[in-house]
């Protein structure tokens, strides 16, 4: 199947980035949000990121315009998915919200439509089972900032069939991304490897081994990471990090995933990183 039209559900940090890359690579995109003001915010972020690409001479004004013209906004899931070949869901990491969204999508989308979730921690097999077509359900895990990061971690649920995988792999390549297949397991590969590193960095700060700045310097200069783990934790959101560690801890019942007490305290204090203006660092 040749995917031409996609619906992206959720216009937050991940959703607007996903809509941006689909539209920029020739797909027609229905961007679905719950309120006009959220949709407006998503479109203005996409415009800002396209402007940045024009300034860096990665695209021209014509490409920027055609990308924006390829995105249509919908405030109703049933309307937005009724004639698409693929749905990519990027709503908050909350099982109740995802359940309600996928039930509506399942009722309204055509039979051939492939279902992809950008979840970073919820079981793909579990989400797939909410729908009447678990064989067409797959994880399409993008990374922030989506227009920049090359990876799509493609997560196969227990019932995902080979045809679905093949279409999603092909589509990811058309987005100029590198698809990497993994099987469904808590945290997949990306977060199973990343989150223990971030957690251990937070233990180092909590135990007074080094300051946040110095932990980050060690990992940036010694390990060539573009951002240190604590700046990255702020960028991802400390609440999101804590949630994912919870999924690993529960999923494997292994104490090695126990969240650092300092992480729990910072989330309790509302210091969630970039989005609240303060985490391990302060932001304007
Ligand atoms: N849209 C388009 N382009 C963007 C962009 C955006 N939103 N954000 C940055 N860029 C571009 C910049 O224009 C710049 O382009 P050039 O290379 O042409 O100059 C390039 O990306 C680098 O940006 P900056 O110069 O502003 O800053 P930087 O060099 O410090 O890079 C960064 C910023 C790309 C975020 C880099 O620090 C980085 O790669 N950090 C690690 C990010 C990471 O690990 N993300 C994964 C998080 S985990 C996740 O998302 C999933 C999960 O499940 C938790």
TrEMBL record:
Residues 187-283 form the 3-hydroxyacyl-CoA dehydrogenase C-terminal domain. Signal peptide: none annotated. Gene3D superfamilies: N-(1-d-carboxylethyl)-l-norvaline Dehydrogenase, domain 2 (1.10.1040.10), NAD(P)-binding Rossmann-like Domain (3.40.50.720). Residues 5-184 form the 3-hydroxyacyl-CoA dehydrogenase NAD binding domain. InterPro entries: 3-OHacyl-CoA_DH, 3-OHacyl-CoA_DH_CS, 3-OHacyl-CoA_DH_NAD-bd, 3HC_DH_C, 6-PGluconate_DH-like_C_sf, 6PGD_dom2, NAD(P)-bd_dom_sf. The keyword Cell membrane does not apply. NCBIfam families: PRK05808.1. Keywords: Oxidoreductase. It is an enzyme of class 1 (oxidoreductase). Belongs to the 3-hydroxyacyl-CoA dehydrogenase family. Its EC number is 1.1.1.35. The keyword Oxidoreductase applies. This is 3-hydroxyacyl-CoA dehydrogenase family protein. GO terms for molecular function: (3S)-3-hydroxyacyl-CoA dehydrogenase (NAD+) activity. PROSITE patterns: 3HCDH (PS00067). It comes from the Bacteria. Transmembrane segments: none annotated.
């Amino acid at each position: 199947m040749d995917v031409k039209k996609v619906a992206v559900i959720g216009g937050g940090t991940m959703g607007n980035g996903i809509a941006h890359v689909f539209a920029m690579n020739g797909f027609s995109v229905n961007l679905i949000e719950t309120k006009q003001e959220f949709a407006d915010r998503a479109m203005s972020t996409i415009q800002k990121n396209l402007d940045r690409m024009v300034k860096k001479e990665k695209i021209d004004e014509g490409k920027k315009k055609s990308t924006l013209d390829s995105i249509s906004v919908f405030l109703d899931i049933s309307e937005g998915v009724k004639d698409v070949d693929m749905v990519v869901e990027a709503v908050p990491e909350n099982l109740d919200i995802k359940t309600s969204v996928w039930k509506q999508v399942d009722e309204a989308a055509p039979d051939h439509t492939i279902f992809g979730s950008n979840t970073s921690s919820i079981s793909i097999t579990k989400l797939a089972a909410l729908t009447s077509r678990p064989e067409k359900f797959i994880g399409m895990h993008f990374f922030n900032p989506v227009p920049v990061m090359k990876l799509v971690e493609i997560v196969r649920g227990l019932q995902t069939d080979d045809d679905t995988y093949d279409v999603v792999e092909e589509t990811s390549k058309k987005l100029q991304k590198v698809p990497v297949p993994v099987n469904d397991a808590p945290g997949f590969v990306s977060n199973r490897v990343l989150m223990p590193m971030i957690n251990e960095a937070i233990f180092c700060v909590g135990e007074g081994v080094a300051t946040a700045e110095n932990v980050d310097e060690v990992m940036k200069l010694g390990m060539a990471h573009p951002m240190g783990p604590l700046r990255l934790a702020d960028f991802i959101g400390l609440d999101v990090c804590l949630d994912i560690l919870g999924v690993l801890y529960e999923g494997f019942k292994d104490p090695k995933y126990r969240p650092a007490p300092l992480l729990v305290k910072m989330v309790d204090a509302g210091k969630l990183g970039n989005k609240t203006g303060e985490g391990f660092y302060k932001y304007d």
